[in-house]
Amino acid sequence: MKRLKTLEINGFKSFQKKTVLDFQVPIVCIVGPNGSGKSNVVEAVRFVLGEQSMKSMRGKQGADLIFKGSKNLPKSSRAYVSIYFNNSDKVFKLPDEEGKNASLGYDTVSISREVYPDGVNKYILNGGEARLKDVNSLLSSVNIGSSGHHIISQGEADRILSVNPKERKEMVEDALGLKIYQYKIRETERKLERTGENMKEVAMLRKENAPHLRFLQKQMEKAEKARDMRVELLSLYKEYLKKESAYLEKESGELTAEKRRISSELEVLRKKIAGTEEKNISEEENMKELGALERRSAELRKAKGELERKLGRLEGILEMEKERAKTAGESRVLSPEAAEEAIREIDFLLEEADGLETLSEIRAVLERMRSVMDDLRRQSGPEQKPDDGKMEELEKSRKEISEEIEKMAEEEEEAANKAEELRKENREKLEKLREAEKERFGLRMKEQELSSALELLSVREENLVREKGDFENEIREGAPLVGQEIMSYKHSSADGEDGREYREEMRKKIERIKIKLEDAGAGGAEIEKEFKEATERDQFLEKEMEDLSESIKSLEALMADLKNKIDLEFKEGIKKINAEFQKFFELMFGGGTASLKVVVENRNKNRRNAEEEEEEIAEEEEESEPEQGIEISVSLPHKKVRELHALSGGERSLTSIALLFAMSQVNPPPFLILDETDAALDEANSRKYGDMLEKLSSRSQLIVVTHNRETMSRAGILYGVTIGGDGGSKLLSVKFDEAVAIAK
C-alpha cells in the first residue's frame, strides 16, 4: 500500500509559498541544481516528523528554519510543514489511557509542525494540538523511528560504517522497529521509578497517619461505648418519659378536679358561715337588753337597800325618841339591837367601799359611816327630852321612805319579771346559739380543712409546674445526646405511670449515664466521621500500596517481557538483515560475503576514585555488566580486504548502501528518503543501484534526491526544484514518461 500521500511546505527555509508534493507512485525523484532548495524538501520531512537536532536541518535555532525574505518576497511569520498518510487499513496507533496501543480511527493521518520566530514549536495531529511524544508514538507504530534510518543522506550513508558497535546496534534496533519497545522500556523504567517514589510516599503517609489512626481507634472505642450508652439512654428515656408524662398528665387532671371540688365546697361553706354570723347578731341584741334590765334591777336593789337602811335608822331613832320620852332625864344605855344594827350598817358600808375605786365614792361611803357613828353617840349620850316637831319630821321621812321603797320594790319586781322572761328567752336562744356556734365551729373547722387542702393543692401545683419544667428540661438535655428520636417516647409501648420510687430510680440511672457520656466527651459523630475518613484513607493507602506493588510486579514483568521480546526480535532481525545484506552485497560487488555480528564487551558499572577505593578495600570487587554492540564483517570478491577501514570510498559507499537497504527490507518503513546516496557511483554501479531501488520500492515508497540519470529513469514522478526570480524555491513536476525522456 502506498502509505505516503502528500507533503505541504509553507514558509520553511527557501519555500516561501505553499508547495505541495504528491507521492502517489512507488519512486519519486527530486532533482535540481545545487542551491535550488531540493535538500530543503528532505529537511522539511525531518522537521515535520519531529527532528530535534537543528544541526541535521542545517540551522542553529528554530528561527533559522523560517523563510527570511528576499528582494521580492517578504519574510514569513512562521514555518509550516504538513505530511499526510493513508490510514485506510488503520495501522497507525496511539497508546490509550491504559498504555495499550489503539488504532487511530482516521482514513488519512495528518501531522503538522509549526515553528515561530521565538523558537516555539507546535505539533498538530489531525487538526488537534499534540505532544511530540504522541507524534513519536504514532510514527513508531509504522516503523518510522526517531533515529531517522528512513532518511539516508550521502554523508549519513557512511555513518553506519564509522560509528562504534554500540551506536550501530542502536541504528539496527531502530531499523528493526525495536525502538518502540525501548521507548516502552524507558517509559516503564520511569513508571517504576515514579511507582517506587509513590510507594515511599504512600508508606510515609501511612506511617504518619498511623498514630492519629490509633488515637482515633481509642476514641472510637470510647465513641462506641458512648453509642451503646446512648442506645441504653434512649431506651431508658422512652420508658421514663412515657411514665413521667403519664404521671404528669394524671396528676394535672387530679389536681384540676380536686381544686374545682374543694373550691366549690368552700364557696357553699362560706355562705353557710355568713348565715350563722347574722343569727349571732340578733342574739347579741337580746343579751344587751337583758343586761340593761339586770343593771337596772341592781340599781333598784341598791337604792332600795339604802332606803331600807335609812328607814331602819329612822325607825330606830323614832323608837329611841319614844323610849327617851318615857325615860326623859335618865342616863341612856345603848340597846343591843341598836348596837347590832349599827354594826351591820358599818359592815355593809365597808363591804361597799371595798368594791369602790374612785376617791370621791370612797369619801361618800366614809361620810355615811360618820353619820352612823354620830347616831351611836347620840343614842349612848344622856337622855334628853324628846322634841315633838322632830318626831313628826322623822315620822314623815319614814313614811316617804317606805312609799319610795314600796315603789322601788314594785319596779324591781317588774324588772325582775321582765328579766326572767328575757333570761328564759335567752336560755332558749342560748341553747340555739350554742348549737349555732357549734355548727359554726364545725363549719370553720371544715373551712380550715378545705383551705389547708387548697393550700396543699397549690403546693402540689407548684411541684407539678416544677416537675413539668424538669420533664421539658430533661428532653432538652437528652436531645443532643440521643437525637430527636427522644420524642418517640410518645409512641413507646412502655406501660404508663408507675410508682414515684420506680421513676426516681430510672431518673438516677439516666443521670449516671449522662455523666458518663459527659466524661466520654461530645462529638461522637465527629470522631466516628473522622475515624471513618482516616480508616478509609488508610485502607485506600493500603490498597494503593498493594496496587503499586502489583504495578511494580506488572511493570517488572513487562520490562522483562519487552527485553525478552527485543532480544528475540533483535536476534531474529540480525539473521534477516544478514540474509538481505548478503544478497545486496553480492549484487553490488558481484560476490563476496558480508554480515553483522553481535559482540559483547564488559564495562564498569561503578567507578571509584583512589580515595574511595582505599576506604572500601574490604568491599566486594566492582560489578560489571555486559554491553552489546554490532560489528560488520565483509569480504570482497577476489580481494583479501576484510576490514572496513581498508575499503575505498566507493566500496564503503556500496557497502553502506547494501547494509541500509538490507535493514530497510527486514522491517520496511512506509517510505525511504535517499538524499544523493548514489553520488559516488559509476555508471555500472548506478544501474545496480537502480535495480535495488526498484526492488526496494515494492515494499516502501522511495523519495530520491539525485543527479544520477540512471536513478531518475526509475522514477514515476520527477520533481524539479529551482530558485525563481523572486528568490523563493519553486517546484516543477514531470510524469514518468517525461522523466525517462529527460533522463535519456
Task: Please describe what this structure looks like.
By secondary structure, this protein is α/β, with parallel strands linked by helices. It is 62% helix and 13% strand. Mean pLDDT is 81; it is low at 617-624. It is rod-shaped. The protein has helices at 38-48, 132-140, 154-157, 159-162, 165-175, 179-326, 336-354, 359-380, 388-482, 500-520, 524-589, 610-615, 649-666, 683-696, 709-712, 736-743; strands at 4-10, 19-22, 27-31, 79-86, 93-95, 101-103, 108-115, 121-125, 128-130, 151-153, 593-604, 624-635, 671-675, 701-705, 717-723, 729-735. Helix 6 (179-326) crosses helix 10, helix 6 runs antiparallel to helix 11 (524-589) and helix 11 (524-589) crosses helix 13 (649-666). It is built from 16 helices and 16 strands. Among the domains are: 1-144 and 673-686 and 695-744, P-loop containing nucleotide triphosphate hydrolases (Rossmann fold, 3-Layer(aba) Sandwich); 208-462, no CATH class. The strands form four sheets. The chain has a six-stranded antiparallel beta sheet with strand order 2-1-4-7-8-9.
